[in-house]
Amino acid sequence: MKSKFYCLFLLYVLSGGGLYAQHVLKGVVLGKADKAPFPGATVIANGDIYKGTVTDTKGEFTLDLANETGEVTVSFIGMETVTVPYQASVFLSVELAEETNSLDEVVVIGYGTAKRSNLTTAVATLENVSRTVDRPISSPQEMLQGQVAGVTVVSNSGDPGSSPSVIIRGRGTFNNEEPLYVVDGMPYYGSRINPNDIESMVVLKDAAAAAIYGAQAASGVIVITTKSGKSGAPRVALDFYQGWQSAYRTPQALNATEYSQAYTQAAIHAGATPNPAHDSNVNPWGQVTRTNWMDEIFRTGAITNANLQISGGSDRARYSTSFGYHKKEGLLLNTDYELFSLRLKGDYEITNKFRVGQNVYLNQSAAYGTNTSSSYSGAIINAIYMNPAAPVYDEDGNFHGTVPFELSQFAGAYGDTYNPVSLLLRPSRKAPRFNVNAITYAEYDVLEDLTFKSSFSLDLWNWSDRTFSPRAPEIGRPSNMNYLDQSSGNSTRWIWDQQLNYNKTFGRHNLGLTAVYTAQFRKEESHSFTVQDFDREDDWFQYPGNANTILNVPGYSAFEDALTSAIGRATYDFDDRYFIMGSIRRDQTSRLAPSTRTDFFPAVSGAWKISSESFFQSNLIDLLKIRASWGQVGNISSVGYYAFNVPMSAGNNVILGEPGERNRHISLNEITNANLKWERSETLNFGLDATLFQNKLQFTAEYYEKYTRGLILRNSPDPHSGVPTGALSNVGTVSNKGLEMSLNYSGNVGELSYQVGGNFSTIKNELVDLDEFTNDFIQHSDNIRTSVYPFRSEPGQPLYSYHLIPNTGIFQNQEQIDSYLNSDGEKIQPNARPGDLIFQDVNGDGRINDSDRIFMGNAMPDFTYGINITMEYKNFDLMVFGQGVSGVELFNGYKHTAYNAGLQGYNLDRRVLDAWTTQNPNATIPVLSTQDPNSNFGTASDWYLESGDYFRIKNISLGYTFSLEQWKTGSQVRLYGSAENLATFTKYSGLDPEVGSGTVIDNGVFPSPRTFTVGFNMNF
Fold this sequence. Notes:
Layout: H1 2-14, E1 23-31, E2 42-45, E3 48-54, E4 60-65, E5 69-75, E6 82-87, E7 92-96, E8 106-109, E9 112-115, E10 123-125, H2 129-132, H3 140-144, E11 151-154, E12 165-168, E13 180-183, E14 186-187, E15 198-204, H4 207-210, E16 221-226, E17 232-247, H5 256-269, H6 293-297, E18 301-313, E19 317-329, E20 336-349, E21 354-368, H7 379-385, H8 420-425, E22 428-430, E23 432-445, E24 450-469, E25 483-506, E26 509-534, E27 547-550, E28 555-574, E29 578-589, E30 598-609, E31 621-635, E32 649-656, E33 661-667, E34 679-692, E35 697-709, E36 712-714, E37 728-730, E38 733-749, E39 752-762, E40 764-769, E41 778-779, E42 791-793, E43 801-804, E44 807-810, H9 814-818, E45 837-839, E46 854-855, E47 863-873, E48 876-886, E49 889-891, H10 894-898, E50 945-947, E51 950-963, E52 972-986, E53 1009-1019
Parallel strand pairs: 1-7, 13-16
Antiparallel strand pairs: 1-4, 2-3, 2-5, 5-6, 8-9, 10-15, 11-12, 13-14, 15-16, 17-18, 17-53, 18-19, 19-20, 20-21, 21-23, 22-24, 23-24, 24-25, 25-26, 26-27, 26-28, 28-29, 29-30, 30-31, 31-34, 32-33, 34-35, 35-38, 36-37, 38-39, 38-40, 39-47, 41-42, 42-43, 43-46, 44-45, 47-48, 48-51, 49-50, 51-52, ...
């Protein structure tokens, strides 16, 4: 086609056709995604191939035309053809985008690439990456939330230094469930990747797709490809946004008057004498509200993000260099996150057969968070606890306690509470992290169809944590001692891959063979110590040598870890109809005993492209394919580095003699299991792929069954051994079953182009058996104040299930209590009073105890979904993204202390104003009382349980693009505004329904912020 065009064009010029032209049109063709010049594009005027040309290396073209106005058509293979009007006197700028939902789109898979239409395994691609990074996000995990079916992303906390957790197709283990990240072909263990550096993200969901990555891939694989340079003149891309984030909602405590009245009534209900501190005649100071503590600890935090990329190159050398800066202030005082990143990437063709390249990341970060999970010292819960009559500072500028020193006789009425502002501002913290991650490769074409590639990755970490905690002399929870906690460490990891690829076409047969040998080694050292009793607390004095006391012998940790693997994979397809892929991987780890450290993990998959059959004739369906896969992947993430030969422990905690001195000791603290084997993840997957209406509609459906076999868990110790910790063992099986669907449609109406997409996934999680475990169930130790233990895992139930006693409401009167009897005529709840919870006697034994517990769901969603809408009209673009979950139950531990007047006198949440009274019989909060003989709050009951279902308008972005052709050809700038977490629809009464998916107790978790940003993208 191209040779024909060039011949015709040459004949036209030679024949003198141009002699009659009266107008000259000049313009440029750019890539829509990166705004880079697009060389080699065909430009035809008014549908006449004789009036055409091809863009040069700068993407520019010139046409001599007879008409001053008309239409120009620009095309290139694999790109959408564009027809635009022209006016000869105006410089024309045209952008080419990749063909939407093209069947020939190439996606990156394990150690290679494949056409999307030829995939045989469960592989999903993140769409619209370029717009996703405009959001105020700081990690790749945030980019995936709600975007890919079967991928659950939970923020866990709004702490600016935290990263969301990613779970692919449900929990299969009690151990590390994070997927493996692969960046530019190599497993990645470095710092956060700058989202602006990401070109594409692909999720390998089933074992057959992930098997080639082996031991780290049991929980799935996320493959990231970073931006590369392109041939041509240097291009500069500048991205910047500024944002402001605030809490979506905050809890509110009682004011000073309500506080006193609530505790007075609570004491009267308990038959006790009200505390004089709450008597306005005795303690008038305590009746005046001086501080709203929530207003004092929360703030509007600023976000600044800047990214500069310079790229370009020649036909044989391409480069891309980027610098990123991200600074995020947390919602709470003195919390923030800061990241500097530098990336240097290059690809070089030394000869036609030999290529080399490198990708170097340098990251410097610092994160300052705070504890919000503790029901004792959490910053948010202490803002509820703290006396509202107390100011933040006293007259001398020092932090104020629950009461002034001259009223210390009333201190006991307000509990052992921290000043929450001091809790955030008082500690002096430094926590820098420095990471270098370097990847280099050399690739050689041994034969026409045989390529050898050697890749080497080096990952270096250096970190330091330093916290100085001054004395806290104010009344409440005073401390007359200061402390310095300091730790530091370094880690080195290298990975070396040797890869052979053979690809050959024999007529209608295509064969691909891949062989890989990979080795990786990690070495880490760290140390820590705590010293106390500093005479001064000035910044310049906060060094270990100035402390008067060393608490313990400094801690030290060191280990080495090695893994080697050999992988073989074969792919075959016939006539674009039948596809098959099989692989086998041999993994060998240093963590297990010699007899079990080596294991083999196979995988196989196949697909039938029905739409390529001669009998299939359809003008509507472009692709119809069914596929199936099965595979196994090993997992040892939960295994200690020396699990086969546990080292002895040393310390100085043994006190002997008189007057009692600490003695150095060496002890065996853990039992070794020389027979421990690999945990094995096995997935069976069935899929259907279809595209319709000239690739405008894309549909994918998956059904999977995922099993974790040989579940690794620690058994109980032998009580006769004298060793306190049992051995790790292979004890059971976990299953996850589910359905995933995604649907995307793209089209246009006139100048309006749009794309609508949606996805959803279901999941059923079950602990199948605990055949080799020492108990019939696992009682998890997560709790509220060592009194409420809500989690249990038992065969037949999901992991981390709630195991609770049902409640059926609140006793309205004594008669109701007296009539709640067992078979012997005795009261089932003899200590109950009107206003107390009614607990169900599930087993009918006439008593309320742990035998009445039943399973009541868990925090992992049964159903997740996401909705995406993008539109472009002329120079405007709009993106709307929403995501949600269903079938989630959350344990609101915040109620235990914020609604409970029976503790130490802490202030309470304002919602207790709606607690039960005889005048408020329909209340759901038990009666306020300074005593709790019925154990309303100490019972692990479903009163704490709430639905965590939500739908969140995650992001709305609106942009407008300006051309800067008058400044430089191909230049433009896009201005945009964005709103993140704009609205959340939920019945959950806590601060945020995104609190996690495992053994999570919400004690006032750090909420996800609502964020507004404005920014620009400039390309020139």
